[in-house]
Write a structure and sequence with these properties.
Length: 391
Amino acid sequence: MGKAAAVVWDQSFLGYDLGGDHPLNPVRLDLTIRLATELGVLDGVSLIAPDAATDDDIERVHEAAYLNAVRAAPHAAWDVGHGLGTSDNPVFERMHEASALIVGGTMEAARRIASGEADRAVSIAGGLHHAMRDHAAGFCVYNDCAVAISWLLDNGFDRIAYVDVDVHHGDGVQNAFYDDPRVLTISVHQNPMTLWPGTGWPAELGGKGAEGTAVNLPLPPGTRDGNWLRAFHAVVPGLLGAFRPQILVTQCGVDSHREDPLADLSLSVDGHRAIYRALRDLAEAHAGGKWLALGGGGYELLRVVPRSWTHLLATVLDRDVEPNVPLPPGWVSHASRLAPNRPLPSSMTDAADTTFTPWGGDGDTPVDGAIRNTRRAVHPLHGLDPDDPRD
């Protein structure tokens, strides 16, 4: 990496709080920054505090009437609709302000890259990929990923690749750019027959004039690190090579972990670390080194998210943390006070094996079937041979 990477963070991000025992608890962000700090990952790094996104920014992908509903929701005495006030998307005080700040953080990260100040930037508070044009969905009020991509399209970029490794389909971003051939969206997720939102099939390929720019790789429940990485490397690098993006935007949700309470893939913290290193390599190989990394889902708040996203921060900064590094006593003490009956890991690893056998065009496992289905749907639209593992 040449230029120093930009890390966007401010304690105000913790205001995006859906309350009570909602799975998307902002403590996961606080614990991540505490862990990265105590491990020295952020030594000498000036954390960038963003401004909230303006209405004009947010209305790049959301309707003005929806913004008005979000503003009014905390004070409304009636059902405001727009997906607000549900168990997934409960209303909370200053919801618009907190959501606009998340968008502002992702936009600030994008600006740092577009201005040439940094080649890489990361905002772990971002990655709210389910929000739709006129409604909240899946814990997401405003779609910061889509807003930033839209802004980048108007500020020097006309070929953008978005890769989403969250366990849930990146439906909001796919929908926002389904008809736009300038944006390649790739989502690697649990099979939608077995998990919300029920979309993300290989046949979802993009609208007229943008065929092949929506890519979906659904994997069976129980998929572990080796098979996940086998599938990822069988699909993603070849498509990025054919598309030739100018920047790689990634949503790095960690709800694919085997301990996550809301989904059924079986990855490890070590698998997540391997994914981030692969994304870094792909940005260098296919996007001129330009990489915008965002957070996303992840609901094992103490044991998984802080370790996985500390690895993400370290990878973006080229300060890779070795898996066997012990967790700092100060961090363990703080986390233990939050959940005294929850055993904590002792180090930055799950001691998982992340080796994988590259796809060779053969194999008859469910994962191999998923690879073939996606490649046969998409690869010919990019001039690639779906049955040739070299493509």
